[in-house]
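ugh ok so i messed up the first submission bc i forgot one of the chains. this is the corrected input, ALL of the components this time, i swear. 494 residues overall. if the numbers dont match what u have on ur side tell me asap before i send this to the collaborators (the ones from the other lab, u know who)
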Amino acid sequence: MKTDLPIDRHEPVAKRVRDLIRTRINAGEYSLNGRLPSEAQLCVSLGVSRATVRTALEALASEGLITRRQGDGTYVNRRAIGVMTRFEANWEFTSLIEGSGRKALIEILCEERRPASPKEASLLEVPKLEEVLAIRRVFKADGLPVIYTSDVLPTAMLTEPYPPEALSQPLLNFLEAYCGQHHLFNIADVSAALADREVAEVLDLPRGAPILRLDEVIYSSDDRPLLCAVNFYNEKALRLRLVRART
Amino acid sequence: MKTDLPIDRHEPVAKRVRDLIRTRINAGEYSLNGRLPSEAQLCVSLGVSRATVRTALEALASEGLITRRQGDGTYVNRRAIGVMTRFEANWEFTSLIEGSGRKALIEILCEERRPASPKEASLLEVPKLEEVLAIRRVFKADGLPVIYTSDVLPTAMLTEPYPPEALSQPLLNFLEAYCGQHHLFNIADVSAALADREVAEVLDLPRGAPILRLDEVIYSSDDRPLLCAVNFYNEKALRLRLVRART
DNA sequence: AAGTGGTCTAGACCACTCC
DNA sequence: GAGTGGTCTAGACCACTTG
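and heres the new structure output, hopefully the right one now
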């Protein structure tokens, strides 16, 4: 009945409760009957209010990791353990890959400065022919190529020079570190495409194979486009599995 | 400064507040500068507590419809109006279609009882060759075929006879009405495929065209599989556009 | 300094499921 | 009836942005 809550790191209590419960679930702590302690019990054992406990449980339920039944109790959703991938929660391909239990590696294929194409200028809301930084990369999982990405951002957004290895990290980190920009939301179009020569070669697929394509634009907190990207998933190597919990 | 809240229909106050604000946003009520009243102002004008207002605003923020900035205010995300489609919130193809401003129609292609295939039996967790009801349908938007669906559920789950027109509605309604089952969550695999003869014909596509494929299993609140389905999207006619809000 | 959203508490009542 | 999760309130303090 002691608190078990990690020491204060200026992190909201509800998040620490959420992470603690998630850790316990993944450790199989409730695997006997899949039932979690009641909210009241968690309040007492963790020393927090019920609202805080509920905030944590709501987050886990919206991830699909637990299900709650009024009048009954809260249960682990065993089908969502491990294989779970929630689109809304996955901004980083590296975490997507490592969530499937493999080692993620980013390889840079090409990095160039050039004028924006008409479509890119329109998506980024910059003047035609504005100079952009274009980066093509491939994400590997345990050495296997799984995602091909092509990212474009205006060079005017760069606030300071960056070292070459800066591009070997997720670009959201790059945006914060070298552009001073915080992302807030993005809009993504999901579609099916056929692998062209370059994509097929990089992802080690037959040319013309069907492939998942994701076109996305990332926006800052003050609603300006930061970056546009086209991504191709090699679904043979990386399943895009989503859990939808009823709202 | 009067309440404006719709009359009580046994619906949670927070949901009514959420819907009211959503209606106001869509009506362009805050389109001058895109700024919503502060939480405190909403509390007073709607006559509810701040926690209730925040529950409503949190839901809208997770839809991507509004953005909130600490120390500043709450703003409409104009990029998410109208075109928005949130995967987690879209269980019904009909609402997906009508959300794009078109008229949805369901057409039944085939309805049969037959033994389950090995894969179906495994997904539905029933004995091999168990009898299932298989339904193939096409969803049309303003008359254009946009989604091809193939649904399979064990006939043992049917609790009462159903009229033929029952299949012309979303199957989640069917599950409630004729199987007495409530769905709780589903797991979906997104992939790219090539249109085979039947799919191409039904969706009016060239054979071999790339097409989005969604394999899903729907589970009940007590964690049993209710239904498995394979769906094909004609993305030329129905864009799958998603908004991701940072959590 | 004032106002905003972010977090947390304590307490209440309700609807529902189980025994 | 006892216990569970679902909802709502009132109040407090904090971090942050803006003037």
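quick check: Chain B has a mean pLDDT of 90. that seems consistent at least. Residues 13-26 of chain B form the longest helix (14 residues).
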